[in-house]
Amino acid sequence: MPGEGKTEVGFKQDLIWRLEAFAFSTLFAFLRLLGVERASGLGGWLLRTLGPHTGTQKTVMRNLRIAFPHMPVAERERLALEQWDQTGRTFAELAVMDRLTPEGGRVEVVGMERLHAIRDSGVPAVLISGHLANFEVMAAVIMASGVPCQVTYRAANNPYVDALIRESRERYGIRLFAPKGDGTRELMAGMKRGDSIALLVDQKYNQGPEVTFFGQPVNASPGAARLAQKFDTIMQPLSVVRLPGVRFRVTAHEPIRVPDTGDKAADILAGIQAANAFVEDCVRAHPVDWFWVHKRWPDKVYAALREADQAT
């Protein structure tokens, strides 16, 4: 445990972690007392008010320019403001995720039969999606479908906060898995046991195969396509759209098959491109729902944008 046998520096870090975890748990308790709609509304209002004044606003606007270069400036500014509202709502809703389930009446599901087919086949699948709307809602749908699944996530730096996050997910059956490195070995072990794997495929990678996303190069993790190929299974795309009244629609789309041409490297690359094209289609359909605050593209794409600005 943190704090055991630590030096003075270690003790200070452990104390900071514990204080952060106390603040985190206090905030979540307050949000749960507010209830779903008021908690979501408060989170949206806070980031809609504060977000545009942070340094991250530059990242949001740059991302919108990369994705939608021909969109009028006023439209991008409106979209930037609305996405802050979405991001704030998503954070606040973490405290009440056990109430955002199909059983709770706030989540409708399209294509549940596809998830049931995976469940009934006994063959593990690779469930893929992106940072769309409240992407945590998709995990609740996977659990409701009966598909045995491990949901990957990035562990919090603070181990006490991480434990609180895991505990909150366990309220409605989510099994979180924080892979080490790209996690391929651990994910393979899970699939060998018959567990499906849920992955978000739109995170930034500093290395890895290069594919196209909104017409620009990105490095992408090969994990989803590699696992689907190895286990001769499908990549099952899922999307989530935010609806009025803190409600959501989760859709299980047409499965993606990694090509089998005999050229494994080329087939995996094609599978990765298909997964990223799926996320791009979702973002184009509902741009306000995407997580614009993270740097998805490599540094060279942002550098080219800055050079273009300096040239004008």
Give a quick set of tags describing it.
9 strands, 312 residues, seven-stranded mixed sheet, two-stranded antiparallel ribbon, 51% helix, alpha/beta, disordered N terminus
Number of domains: 1
Mean model confidence by pLDDT: 90
Helix content: 40-55%
Q: Any low-confidence stretches, pLDDT <50, length ≥5?
A: 1-7
Question: In words, what does this structure look like?
Answer:
The chain has one domain (8-311). The chain has eleven helices and nine strands. The protein has helices spanning 8-34, 36-50, 56-67, 73-93, 112-121, 136-145, 159-170, 184-192, 223-230, 264-285, 299-311, and strands at residues 107-110, 126-129, 149-152, 176-177, 196-200, 210-213, 216-219, 235-243, 247-252.
Describe how the helices and strands are arranged.
Layout: H1 8-34, H2 36-50, H3 56-67, H4 73-93, E1 107-110, H5 112-121, E2 126-129, H6 136-145, E3 149-152, H7 159-170, E4 176-177, H8 184-192, E5 196-200, E6 210-213, E7 216-219, H9 223-230, E8 235-243, E9 247-252, H10 264-285, H11 299-311
Parallel strand pairs: 1-9, 2-5, 2-8, 3-4, 3-5
Antiparallel strand pairs: 6-7, 8-9
Summarize the model shown:
This protein has 312 residues and is of the alpha/beta class. Helix content is 51%, strand content 13%.
